[in-house]
Amino acid sequence: MPLQPLRPLTRLYPPPPLHWVGDGFRVRGYLQAYADLAEAMDPFLLLDYHPPYTYAPTQYRRGVGTHPHRGFETVTLAFAGSVSHHDSAGGGGTIGPGDVQWMSAASGVLHQEYHAAEFARTGGTFQMAQLWVNLPARHKMGPPSYHAITAAELGHVALPEEGGHVRVLAGEFQGVRGPARPFSPIAIQDVTLAAGRQVRLELPETFNVGLLVMAGPVTLNGHRAATDDFASFRPGAGGIEVVAEATARLLVLAGEPLGEPVVAHGPFVMSSVAEIEQAIEDFNSGRFGRLEG
After folding, report:
1. Beta strands in 144-239 (DSSP E)
2. Is residue 229 within 8 Å of 14, Cβ to Cβ?
3. How does pLDDT run across 160-216, given as a tens digit for each residue?
4. How far apart are CA 264 and CA 151, in angstroms?
5. In this model, does residue 2 exceed pLDDT 60?
6. Contact assessment for residue 13 and residue 230, using Cβ atoms and an 8 Å cutoff
């Protein structure tokens, strides 16, 4: 059998420091910490990863209060614990382990996100990730939408000989498609591998690809990566061979680069300064709607 080509590793990034978003999310901000990584991961704009952390019981609502967004989509993946959301376009709900919230802010929403009431009351381990996915310029001023995706709705592929499994949120793995319908071609996969087992990831040659090691260590095309490391792979031919030294879990992010101007100001991501100025004016004028609570 001829050797299969491997996609070149661009860089392995160590975990950035933890910081708090609001008072409920203790996260590592990968794309924000490394300027070259943000450029290499187009169309992804942000990755906040909340590694496992145990919260004490409380009657207080932990989270992030009312804030606006325009010009992109937020994708929240719950691995442990539960999180709630509601927004000024009428979207909202609570997700638990394995579920996903997919919100397209598009032309603009106000929203809040916080620990679900029952989880806050009992306390426990919380683990999640949130992505910001850029919208193509032609879709930035479209209508907002919200989609709660349950764990049962995700695509699921069991690896041979109980070697692990792959959950597919967006894109395709071994012919199984995920339920998400993004505005540009992307793939998001949650990969679990048993100790000593391996899997080969095949993604379109034109995609930027990044892997977050949520549990490791693993080797990625021969490069060793520890828990909370992030690996970036440039577009090109070849697969990514993942070998688990111990039970491993990885979040796979891949997407067709938009190659469009990105002008960001806090929670607004548009294509020009004028569009940012308009977003600020619209927000200050109350055009993002109202959100009670």
Report:
1. 145-149, 155-158, 164-170, 172-173, 176-177, 186-193, 198-201, 208-215, 218-220, 223-225, 230-233
2. yes
3. 999 999 999 999 999 999 999 999 999 999 999 999 999 999 999 999 999 999 999
4. 32
5. no
6. yes
Residue 237 vs residues 9, 171, 199, 208, 222: alpha-carbon distances, Å: 12, 18, 17, 11, 17
Are 13 and 223 in contact by the 8 Å Cβ rule? The answer is no
Q: Helix H segments across 51-192?
A: 117-122
Q: What is the pLDDT of residues 89-120, one digit of tens each?
A: 999 999 999 999 999 999 999 999 999 999 99
Instruction: Report the alpha-carbon angle 118-151-121, nearest 5.
Output: 10
Cβ(52)–Cβ(68) under 8 Å? Answer: no
Instruction: Map tokens 């891949």 to a residue.
Output: 254
Report how far residue 185's alpha carbon sits from residue 275's, in angstroms, rounded to the nearest whole number. Answer: 24
Which pLDDT tens digit goes with each residue over 236-288? Answer: 999 999 999 999 999 999 999 999 999 999 999 999 999 999 999 999 999 99
Asked whether the beta carbons of 118 and 82 are under 8 A apart, the reply is: yes
**Three-class secondary structure of residue 137 per DSSP:** helix
CA distance 105 to 155: 25
The overall longest dimension of the chain from CA atoms, in Å, is 65
Q: Which residues contact 140 (CB under 8 A, 6 or more apart)?
A: 70, 71, 72, 106, 107, 270, 271, 275
According to DSSP, the β-strands at 223-225 and 176-177 are unpaired
CB 44 within 8 A of CB 210: yes
State CA 226 to chain mean position distance: 19
Beta bridge partners of 55: 124
Q: Measured in Å, how far apart are the chain's first and last C-alpha atoms?
A: 62
Q: Is the pTM of this model over 0.90?
A: yes
